[in-house]
């Protein structure tokens, strides 16, 4: 054996050991007991365009691995993340973990004092959450329905005026509906609406800020790619300014005539209406503004998308719309202009209407994936997957895939509101697989208000308006997946890259 040969073997051995050690070190950050790479297309799509992720790919992976946890490389966070989509794993994570730094991009435009971004262990969070929860007590939510009914009727009347003489018109649902929903949200929260910036500008600012914040937080192997200048920072700055100015004007306009007990008075935490006079500290003012921005974002973008998805899914099934309209007519006449509490209870008890809302939330949860970070020092054991998740790991909680699990939902991709009728859900297995509002300590604060709002809006609109798609539906199973557009935090329906448009006409009621 020559000396050169021994030398080559020795060098190769050293290189192999060094490479192995380096790979091991990188992988140890993600504890690869179970390292399963995403398909190349999806990894590539995250690296090339890190602002988008393919929900469809996640769902296929979840199915392929029978809803067991798997690991994937998250290019935006530049680390291995665990992905969970089985209800037992999901509930373990949601009950035991907080957000960690997974939402740093959202704080860029919502600030760090709001409920979405404050950590659970923070005393301020616990105090604010308890206080604001009282503004959503069941009796107060019932009262909100009158406000939702008023704004829904106004929208219906605007559409009826457009479709005068039985004509069929095309409308951009996003623009029409966003104004009504923001107006309703502001009214129930005690926010007066400023005349500028316009609601459309604010709605679009939230989406631009989410996109720019998301891009800014992209890093590669721990090195942040954020730039202090450039178009992205400018876009984030401009959008944040629009949102900030809207929130500041809301507070300035609302304080002089604030109702005690409304959300804003709880946020301000003062008995006296001029609590935010110049004498107040800047810090308190910033906290109040962050809460106002958080409620606008959390309460509008989500209900907006749920309502759009519900109407889009209904537009593909004329028979279902007719059945739904008949169910609603049996509860109250289309001529009704003001809802009182007895109508609210009736509306909320209509089985097909409730099924439509739940089924739209199942197929297209407005927050399709939420993130948590494992705390403590010993990590967490996932019972269903039998996987140990180390401390500090970010976990993607994939509500989208969980809610399309075929063991709980036969024909999981078809829109079938009837599946929510009692006899199909006798074991409660479907409910176990549903968490569009998340669960645990950080579950949505506005859940009941949102469900009531969606039911009142859909009931009022479908009773008088018929919705039709712009073109015959092309997707399989009436799923509408081809309309899916992820806006970083939320999931919206769009048509050919534009806000959703549909045909509307007056509903002719047959006796
Ligand atoms: C269909 C409508 C809605 C859906 C699907 C929805 C969904 C969610 C989800 C999934 C979360 C948890 C986010 C996370 O942990 O990352 C959340 C949190 C939250 N939502 Fe909603 N939401 C809706 C409507 C509303 C409304 C109408 C309001 C208020 C008026 C609201 C206020 C909040 C707040 C304040 C939080 C933060 C709670 C906390 O961390 O303590 N949401 N929502």
TrEMBL record:
Domain of life assignment: Eukaryota
Keyword annotations: Heme, Iron, Metal-binding, Monooxygenase, Oxidoreductase
Example of a GO MF term: iron ion binding
Membrane-crossing segments per the record: none
Alphabetical list of Gene3D superfamilies matching this protein: Cytochrome P450
Annotated binding of heme, by residue: 444
Cofactor(s) the record lists: heme
Keyword Protease: no
The family this protein is said to belong to: Belongs to the cytochrome P450 family.
Protein name (record): Cytochrome P450, putative
Organism: Bodo saltans
